[in-house]
Every structure is written in structure tokens, then in C-alpha cells.
Amino acid sequence: MNLVDRTHGALDRAMQVYAGTEHSDRLAATRARLDEPLRVAIAGRVKAGKSTLLNALVGERLAPTDAGECTRIVTWYSDGHTYEVTGYPRDGGPRQLHFNRDDGAIEVDLDGLAPLDVDRLVVTWPSQSLRTSTLIDTPGIGSLSEHVAKRTWELLADDETPADAVLYLMKHLHPQDVEFLQAFHDTEVSQPNPVNAIGVLSRADEIGAGRIDTMASARQIAGRLRATASVRRVVQTVVPVAGLLAETAATLTEFEVRCLRKIADRSAREAEDLLLSADRFVEQMPELGLTSIERQQLLDRFGVFGVRLASILLRRGVVSTATELAKELTERSGLNDLREVLASLFFERRSILKCRSALIALDALVHSDVRPGSDTIAAEVEEIVASAHPFNELRVLSSVRAGWVSGKPDVLEDLEHVIGGMGSSVASRLRLPADSDPATLTGAAGAALARWQQRAENPLTSHELAIAARVAVRSCEGMLAGTGESR
Fold first, then answer.
1. How many folded domains does the chain comprise?
2. Residues 126 and 120 sit within 8 Å (Cβ to Cβ)
3. Buried b or exposed e, range 393-423, using 16+ CB within 10 angstroms
4. How far is residue 324's CA from residue 312's CA, in Å, rounded to a whole number?
5. Which of 31, 93, 224, 300 minimizes the number of CB atoms within 10 Å of its CB?
6. From CA 399, how far away is CA 467, in angstroms rounded?
7. CA 104 to CA 63: how far, in whole Å?
8. Are 70 and 214 in a shared domain?
9. Rounded Cα distance, 233 and 250, in Å
């Protein structure tokens, strides 16, 4: 019986134990979640660019990116057949709310409710991007309003968190960021575990003051962050993304391209002088043929880096249409890299993350409300967590990242790959191209099995690494057997 089936079984037995109690509906919802899209929360400090990144991932300007009242409310964005917004007050039942979308972002009428009185908003929106994941936009950590910041802590840092995974936006790692991410990780399945968190070096285009090589600098900084011990303990990896550029690329208009062409038609020196600063761009060169309002709109949509990059691409003939420019800007924004990381680290192990969330919630319930039969459920949860191989992999990954398992750097790097730390597909584990043929995968898996068996049996291997090696052996056996992540 695989992990999903065992988790379903534990929940079914718990529903019998707690039948007729106030926990019945919650258990039913927890069970239903196993078949729902992955819930991914987007969190970070104030002004980190959370809503902008969410819009880029969806491919539409849905989330408001200003300081309006709805940015202070936890907002869920999920796929559905209709366009609707539902408010969930802290007191009283849910309400369907009126909304409009004049300038792209959704503007919600709270129907007389104060933002602090609203627990969450749920935006249902037909979207291909939202079919694989429900995205949760959260208020900023470190907000001047303690009540607003507390919303995100309540959402992610309790034992019954509704999020399966988190994208955490950062410019650098602040002590409060570490505290928050450690609180988000449970201590039952890992202590703590970075498996369900990805760091995003947000607003990456601002790192180099809008220079054309800004993203290259951002990638170097992200690489240094990835290698930092305090970062490795709380996130799987760090990906640089120019969120504003990615959002704009997804919603680029022909009118904006025509405005950019007027900049591209100037000489490279003239355009560079014009873009030395935002103020200079708005105020200088009246012969450009753009009003100050149009220039400010370009800055609001692209930023200095985006205007500079787009005009260079047009001037050099790399692109000629809005479609071509949008594709090129998306690629250069880092959004495609983030999507690949999301696919390999979150979506490929969707069932593991969702079972993990369900078992955490179930464990919290059976320990907080003890009833006849709940001790049996508690023991079953403990046995699943202890014996399920995917969770053993998570524990080893956590131990490696925390420095509890030591060894040569190349050995630890190999270990992280084999146990799925860089992606759960067989090709990712074996560091092979995704289109590798079965014979190549089988040969590499056999070589990895022999390698880790030798380390597990070597009397000179440290105790901690020997334990990790036995988990790696099981992972290699699973790859050879073709059982995948549900083994």
C-alpha cells in the first residue's frame, strides 16, 4: 500500500473515531484536500513583490499590487468554472462579494466589512495556471500593523497550516525571515525541513540599479544564498526573478510596444543617457514623442531595467512583435526558471507534500482531543511517518542541510540528488537529462545503488552518513523497481 492509500486509510479511521463531533467537517475537508491542487502560499516581507509574482505565475493581473485594503487580507486564487469572490468573515458565514476589474487587478467591495474582520478572500477564476496549484497571497511579514503581519503567521506557522508549500520572497535573509520559515516547518516529519519551501530573490531587476547585466548579478547573489548554511536549512533553493518584468510580459500590449519602439529608434547612447534614472526618463528629451504620463506608465509596468532591456531587444532586431517581446522578457525575467523549479520540487512530489500536510493536521488533532480510539490513530500516524520512505528521504535531506550528516562535499551533493533533494524524478535524482532512455536510467541507478551500498557497509563511514546511505540505497532500489515517488 502506497503513502497516499495509507494516509487515506488513517483519515477514514479518524473520521469514524470523531464521527458526530465538531472535528468531523475538518477531517472530511482534510481528506478531500488529498485530491485537490497543491496549495502554495506566497510569503515575504512588506513590499517584497508577492502579488506581482502571483500575477506573473497566473499570467494575468489579478492580485492588487498597491497598498489597498485587500493587500492586508489573505487571498486565495483557485481555478473554477465561474468568476467570483467569496469573503469569509471571522464571525458569520461566507459572503459572495461584488468586484470589478477595470485596470486589470481585481477590486473587491468588502460589503461594509473592515479588513481585520475578514479571515480570507477566495477568488475563483478560470485559469489553466491555477489547475495545478491554488496560490495564496499573504500580507507582508514585518508589517507596521501587527494585526496584518499576524495574518501570515497564523496562516503558515501553526500545526494545521492550510498551505502545502511556500514561496518565500527575499532580498537578503533577515533574522525574521529565518524565524518565520522555521516556524512554518513542522517538527514531526522533519526537524526542520526545507522540502516544502523555495526562496525567491525577488525584485531581482533592482539589484543592479537597472543595468542590462542585472539578472546575471542576481543569479550570482542567489547562488551565494543557496550555499549559505542558514538559507539551506529553511529553503530548498533560491531562484532570482524580476517579478515586475514577468508580470508585464504576461500582459504586454501592442500600445506599450509602440511606445518602446520610440525609445528603440533613438541611438544606443541617447537611450542610455535617457535611462540613467527614472526622473530623467520622465522629464528629458521632449522630442521622444511620449508624454510624461506615458513614460511614467512604462516605468510602472517595466521598471528602468525592463524599459532598457525591451528597447535594446527591439533596436537590435531580436524581437519585432509584442508576442516575441513577451516571450523574450519572460525568459529573461527568471520566471521560466522558477516554473521549472516549482515543477521539479513541488509538483512532482505533490502527493508527498499533501500527505505530509494531512498527517500533520491529523497528528495535531489526536493529541489535542483524546478520545476512545484516538491513541490507535496516533500510533498509525507515527508508524506511517516513520516507515514511509519519502518521509525518510525528507529527514535525511533535513539532516544534510542542517549539517548533522557530514562528509565530503561531492558525496553529500550526490546524496542530496539521489534522495530527491533537487527534484524527485529519476532523471533528476541521477543528474541525467530529462529525456534519457530507460537503459541509461537503469544503468545509472544500478551504479548509484552499488555506490551507496558500499558506503553503507563501509566500517569507516560515520554513523550518521551510514544511516543516510541506507536511505539512499532504498531510493536507488525504488528507482530500479520503477515505483516512483509513491513507494
1. 3
2. no
3. bbbbbbbbbbeebebeeebbebbbbbbbbbb
4. 14
5. 93
6. 11
7. 9
8. yes
9. 33
Euclidean distance between CA atoms 411 and 74, whole angstroms = 42
Is-contact 72 149, C-beta < 8 A? no
Same domain, 225 and 136: yes
Residue 139 to residue 437: CA distance in whole angstroms:
46
Torsion of CA 448, 453, 456, 461, to 10 degrees: -70
How far are the Cα atoms of 89, 100, 302, 457 from residue 111, in angstroms, in the given order? Answer: 11, 13, 34, 67
CB 344 within 8 A of CB 322: no
Q: Where are the alpha helices (DSSP H) in 59-174?
A: 146-156
Q: Which residue has the cell 494545521?
A: 160
Strand partners for 207: none
Assigned C-alpha cell, 469:
546511505
- Any domain includes 155: yes
459 with 312, same domain: the answer is no
410-459: pLDDT as tens digits: 999 999 999 988 888 899 999 999 899 999 999 999 999 999 999 999 99
Residue 37 gets which letter from DSSP? P
Q: For residues 205 and 152, give the distance between their C-alpha atoms in angstroms, rounded to a whole number.
A: 26
27 inside domain: no
Distance CA 255, CA 253 (A): 5
Q: What is the DSSP letter of 46?
A: T
Residue 450 belongs to what domain range?
A: 388-486
Q: Any residues with CB less than 8 A from the CB of 1 and at least 6 apart, and which?
A: 9
Q: Which CATH number covers residue 216? A: 3.40.50.300
Beta bridge partners, 76, equal 122, 136
Report DSSP letters for 188-201, one per residue.
SS-SS-GGGEEEEE
Of 299, 311, 307, 380, nearest in space to 7 by CA: 380
Q: What is the pLDDT of residue 151?
A: 59
Q: pTM to 2 decimals?
A: 0.79
User: Residue 479 carries which side chain, given as an amino acid letter?
Assistant: M
Residue-wise pLDDT for 35-85, tens only, equals 889 889 898 887 888 889 999 999 988 887 665 545 678 899 999 999 999
Q: Considering only CA atoms, which of 151, 130, 157, 150 is closest in space to residue 40?
A: 130
373, three cell numbers: 480510539
* Burial annotation 245-259 (CB, 10 A radius, 16+ → b, else e): bbbbbbebeeebbeb
Is 116 found in the same domain as 93? yes
Cα separations in angstroms, 182 against 149, 179, 396, 400:
16, 5, 17, 16
306, β-bridge pairs: none
